[in-house]
Design goal:
- There is one protein chain.
- The protein is of the alpha+beta class.
- It has a single domain, classed as Trna Endonuclease, Chain: A, domain 1 (3-Layer(aba) Sandwich).
- The chain has 3 helices and 9 strands; from the N terminus they run αββββαββαβββ.
- A hairpin with a 4-residue loop joins strand 5 and strand 6.
- The longest helix is centred in the middle third of the chain and has 15 residues.
- It is globular, with a radius of gyration of 16 Å.
- The termini are far apart.
Length: about 170
């Protein structure tokens, strides 16, 4: 079987989960949720939705993670059946996994929707991984290049995968 990039980069996050002392099981979703290829159930009660970005953009060293309507519908469906849902944003060149609770994604999207005054077709989360600092997650203001919208969400570099098991 051919190995795709997502196999390697998602696998980097999944092995960290599997090596955690509280890890007991990893499964794909079943039934109506079975076709969500980037999502796994950990220990029966935690959903992890994986995305990766290979390199940061050159101008601002940001990793871009785009969520279109289909991605958001998947996450919504998964969150409805799972009490704890997280994003695992794999920043490949930085060799970091940024763990973000689903509620934090919704907060950033709501912030962007309010600023734009409308629902958009897709939303882009930006993650920076500066040396000796936490991972910063944010969205940009609509129609304003390079302008962050609100405060960054700062995620500790060692939050993943421990925060999945809290």
């Amino acid at each position: 079987m051919k190995i795709d990039d997502d196999h390697m980069y998602h696998g980097a996050a999944l092995i960290q989960i599997a090596e955690h002392p509280q890890f007991t099981a990893i499964n794909s979703f079943e039934g109506k949720l079975a076709h969500y290829e980037n999502t796994y159930r950990i220990n029966g009660d935690v959903a992890v939705y994986l995305k990766y970005a290979g390199k940061p953009n050159k101008s601002h060293h940001e990793y871009l993670f785009t969520f279109n309507k289909a991605n958001l519908a998947e996450l919504d469906a998964i969150a409805k059946v799972n009490g704890k849902t997280f994003l695992a944003l794999v920043c490949v060149d930085a060799r970091e996994v940024c763990s973000l609770p689903y509620d934090a994604l919704l907060t950033l999207i709501a912030r962007r929707r309010k600023a734009a005054g409308k629902v958009e077709d897709q939303y882009t989360l930006l993650v920076t991984a500066q040396k000796n600092a936490g991972l910063h997650v944010y969205v940009n203001a609509p129609h304003k290049k390079n302008t962050k919208l609100g405060k960054d969400i700062v995620v500790s570099r060692n939050a993943f995968p421990s925060d999945l098991f809290k």
